[in-house]
Amino acid sequence: MKIAVLPGDGIGPEVTREAVRVLEALDLPGLTLFSGDVGGVAYHAHGHPLPPETLEMARAADAVLFGAVGDPACDNLERHLRPEQAVLGLRKELDLFANLRPAKVWPGMESFSPLRAEGAGAIDCLFVRELTGDVYFGEKGQRETAAGDPEGWDLMSYSAPEVRRIAEIAFRAAAQGSGKLTSVDKANVLETSQLWRDTVNAVAGEHAQVTLDHMYVDNAAMQLAANPAEFSVILTGNLFGDILSDLASALVGSIGLMPSASLGERQTERGTFGLYEPIHGSAPDIVGQGKANPMAAILSAAMLLRHSLGREDEAKRVERAVEKALTSGVLGFDLGGSAGTAEIGDAVLARL
Ligand code: NAD
Ligand code: IPM
Ligand code: MN
What we know:
Elements: E1 2-8, H1 12-25, E2 32-35, H2 40-46, H3 52-60, E3 63-68, H4 84-93, E4 98-104, H5 117-120, E5 124-130, E6 140-144, E7 150-154, H6 160-176, E8 180-185, H7 191-204, E9 211-216, H8 217-226, E10 233-236, H9 238-251, E11 261-267, E12 272-276, H10 295-307, H11 312-327, H12 341-351
Parallel strand pairs: 1-2, 1-3, 3-12, 5-10, 8-9, 8-10
Antiparallel strand pairs: 4-5, 4-11, 6-7, 11-12
Helix pairs in contact: 1-10, 1-12, 6-7, 8-9, 10-11, 11-12
Bound molecules: nicotinamide-adenine-dinucleotide (NAD), 3-isopropylmalic acid (IPM) and manganese (II) ion.
Residues 84, 87-88, 242, 279, 281 line the site of 3-isopropylmalic acid.
């Protein structure tokens, strides 16, 4: 079992360190960790945010544990050299089209949500976000209008097969859980969304046990805050899923609590190849201060155990240890507490 560890920039290395300590503490036979440069760190060392050797290391592994990328010093580089291209490149190159972002309020943590306790306690949903298409990967550029003004443009598109395969994942997730699926789009305005909606409806025909509804993305943002209990599995495109999952992270208390798994079709010996990362970024505002909450990274490692290594028992052990640490009051600065990054890691390890 080979894991490529790519800590990246900013707080990426700080939170990934704690997730690695948790994986190592499980003492799984045959588990080997390799680490590589990615993001701004890789640009500074090798002249490219996703060096070929890092991509090869990821390809050769059973799973990738990813931190975060993004460096304000790189924000004015040509786009293809910016740190964010590394995570986009890994997703595309490895065909990791299915991004699972679970959002739930941990028992006893209701008061950390900006919602009233009864609404907060009901949050338990899964975003199934398409990750290799949409306006993210369309042609883009800057040009001049007829009037001579500078203009930026980005092409949004989805093909039916792209929608079908992510919809299949979402229907299966819904069938295994509550049986309820909400597909989010903007079909009242966008042709891309109309095709999305028609394709999701076609896939629904093969999943009679799942109740499907469609919601416009603006309404979905409102309903997530007003009636979060309404949602179970939420199927979205790449852009809408990015935005709504950050919103959901605030509703569960902090973005420092929300993990993700990005999966494709390639099978490993005991599961599916995937990349696992917190949904947050490199948080330049708190880097180097020991204030980053590593729970999202640790919970991403739990998802890695579950989906790529077929280690459901260990995944649950890690999640229970996180829950116990949180409910016993080990809270980071993001939750109004004073526990530092390593202290939170220690607290999880102690409860494993
Ligand atoms: P961000 O997620 O890095 O930070 C947003 C806010 O949340 C900040 O106030 C930050 O301090 C806080 N925060 C984030 N993670 C936290 C944690 N674990 N513990 C405590 N507080 C936490 O988003 P941003 O500021 O918009 O972006 C910063 C950089 O990260 C940008 O370069 C962006 O492109 C990049 N980014 C990368 C990824 C990724 O690698 N997958 C994801 C999002 C953003
Ligand atoms: C995320 C991030 C990325 C995205 C950026 C860094 C490319 O915001 O993983 O949510 O937009 O997908
Ligand atoms: Mn994001």
